[in-house]
């Protein structure tokens, strides 16, 4: 696998907590059975037979054999414990999980303007137009922290600079944008705070609709602060703008917004539609879903969960998922410590999703993340269970994966020998429960804090703002475009789960605070350290796996 030098930041990996490990191990080990009662004479326990000497000699030989096996097991356990004591030393770089993340904005500073609820009339038809005037910006905005300059955004925001680097020098021309039309599903134009969409083709399910809905909420939240832009959006999975095709003139590449990319493409990464809901599979907006997962995770404590790695999904969308399914327990008794289940969405729809609840999938100590056709939407839900995530190495990058740190937020799994890698990871975690549990908690804290909707909107705001600065022309509304807004989209939405997702995720106020402050680009030295640290983590995990195969 080729590793993008900046695909992960890194930090200390599996820091030792000997007392905690012993405490967790004791909690996970059943107590020994009580000794049998002694007889009235104080000799052998009551009911024990006295064996002839010949039998006792045979028992002595058996005891020696059992002792040898026991010593071998102790050596194996000692190897695992020893690995935990010296395995993957701390890095000198600052760990993102040790940083204290404060609330995005000061809750004592209320929003300056609450948006009135909208009405869809008698429910028989959607309004033909959006309100005559869009939401007004607040007279003045206050820093997000309520008195001090806005706090810096999380480090993954720095990839905004990388995604837009091809156009930093020459800027973005109208011709470059038009060149992206063959990749796009729709064109989004923002002019004077109003959004317009020209549709080229319909996406799978409602990906396009909920991406547009997210932009409409951004315009409500940061009314009057989103610049005029002209953007081509793609709603499929894999990046299509190949860097090799524009090696001589990177600024000629079309800036196409997409949910993920890899090291060979120039697509611009944007938050995926499911942050506002995925009605077709009964997944609501991200904040409510995240809270439901948190409650369920708290209900079943980590030591009480099944000591295996869990994954449930559609294995038919990618060959690598079919390979993963081979890691299920085999008929010959071989157990890779994985419990893998195929998701049949047609069956799930017919039985009301009773067996497909995201919050109910926090019942195993370990969760597996694996790509689909490219990145997988399941990533953020898998990360939220407080269980260590066994992350199958992938070339695909989305806004979440770019912020994850190997060994701090997840355990890396080798995609070329997944079964052996999963078994080694679970064995290590069960031998060192405190360290394993810490990885799970840090990964979940990352998605709860740094991937909260406040930051998702700020990422969108900064990306669109930086993109707008690069435009070398004034955006204009296309002749075939239609205006979109929260009112027109929600009232036109199909009744049921689609409308419910929109009602859950509609922004109810114009923010009276500033977005977080966009951090600067990575320096070349930082890039070098990030790449070196990740390679070191992968090397040490590979060595562990080889030594314990």
Automatic annotation (TrEMBL):
It comes from the Eukaryota. Residues 1-50, 127-149 are annotated as: Disordered. It holds the Pfam family Glyco_transf_90. Residues 14-25 have a biased composition (Basic and acidic residues). The keyword Transmembrane helix applies. The chain crosses the membrane at residues 60-81. The keyword Transmembrane applies. Residues 132-141 have a biased composition (Pro residues). Keywords: Membrane, Transmembrane, Transmembrane helix. Residues 225-474 form the Glycosyl transferase CAP10 domain. PANTHER family: KDEL LYS-ASP-GLU-LEU CONTAINING - RELATED, OS06G0152700 PROTEIN. This is Glycosyl transferase CAP10 domain-containing protein. The lineage of its organism: Eukaryota, Viridiplantae, Streptophyta, Embryophyta, Tracheophyta.
């Amino acid at each position: 696998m080729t590793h993008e030098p900046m695909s992960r930041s890194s930090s200390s990996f599996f820091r030792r907590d000997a007392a905690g490990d012993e405490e967790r191990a004791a909690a996970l080990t059943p107590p020994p059975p009580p000794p049998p009662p002694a007889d009235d004479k104080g000799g052998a326990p009551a009911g024990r037979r006295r064996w002839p000497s010949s039998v006792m000699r045979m028992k002595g030989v058996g005891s020696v054999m059992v002792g040898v096996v026991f010593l071998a097991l102790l050596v194996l356990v000692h190897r695992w414990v020893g690995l935990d004591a010296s395995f993957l030393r701390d890095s000198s770089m600052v760990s993102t999980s040790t940083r204290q993340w404060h609330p995005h904005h000061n809750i004592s500073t209320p929003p300056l303007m609450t948006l009135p609820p909208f009405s869809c009339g008698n429910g028989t038809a959607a309004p033909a137009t959006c309100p005559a005037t869009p939401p007004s910006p607040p007279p003045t905005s206050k820093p997000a922290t309520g008195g001090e300059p806005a706090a810096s955004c999380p480090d993954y925001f720095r990839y905004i600079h990388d995604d837009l680097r091809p156009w930093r020098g020459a800027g973005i021309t109208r011709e470059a944008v038009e060149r992206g039309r063959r990749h796009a599903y729709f064109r989004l134009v923002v002019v004077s705070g109003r959004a317009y969409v020209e549709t080229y083709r319909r996406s799978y399910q409602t990906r396009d609709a909920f991406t547009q809905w997210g932009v409409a909420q951004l315009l409500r939240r940061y009314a009057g602060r989103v610049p005029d832009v002209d953007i081509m959006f793609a709603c499929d999975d894999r990046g299509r703008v190949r860097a090799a095709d524009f090696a001589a003139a990177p600024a000629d590449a079309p800036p196409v917004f997409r949910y993920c990319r890899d090291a060979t493409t120039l697509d611009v990464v944007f938050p995926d539609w499911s942050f506002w809901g995925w009605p077709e599979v009964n997944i609501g907006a991200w904040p409510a879903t995240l809270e439901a997962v948190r409650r369920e995770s708290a209900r079943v404590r980590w030591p009480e969960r099944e000591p295996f790695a869990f994954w449930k999904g559609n294995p038919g969308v990618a060959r690598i998922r079919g390979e993963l399914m081979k890691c299920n327990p085999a008929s010959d008794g071989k157990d890779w410590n994985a419990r893998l289940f195929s998701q049949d969405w047609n069956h799930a729809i017919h039985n009301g999703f009773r067996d497909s609840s995201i919050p109910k999938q926090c019942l195993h100590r370990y969760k597996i993340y694996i790509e689909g056709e490219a990145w997988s939407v399941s990533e953020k839900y898998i990360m939220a269970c407080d269980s260590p995530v066994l992350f199958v190495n992938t070339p695909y990058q989305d806004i979440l994966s770019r912020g994850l740190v190997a060994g701090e937020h997840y355990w890396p799994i080798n995609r070329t020998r997944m079964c052996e890698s999963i078994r080694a990871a679970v064995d290590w975690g069960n031998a060192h429960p405190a360290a394993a549990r810490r990885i799970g908690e840090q990964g979940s804290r990352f998605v709860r804090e740094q991937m909260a909707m406040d930051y998702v909107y700020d990422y969108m705001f900064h990306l669109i703002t930086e993109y707008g600065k690069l435009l070398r022309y004034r955006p204009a509304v296309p002749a075939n475009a239609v205006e979109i807004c929260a009112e027109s989209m929600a009232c036109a939405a199909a009744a049921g789960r689609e409308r419910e997702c929109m009602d859950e995720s509609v922004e109810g106020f114009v923010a009276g605070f500033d977005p977080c402050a966009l951090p600067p680009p990575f320096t070349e030295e930082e890039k070098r350290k990030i790449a070196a640290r990740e390679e070191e983590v992968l090397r040490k995990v590979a060595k562990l796996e080889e030594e314990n195969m």
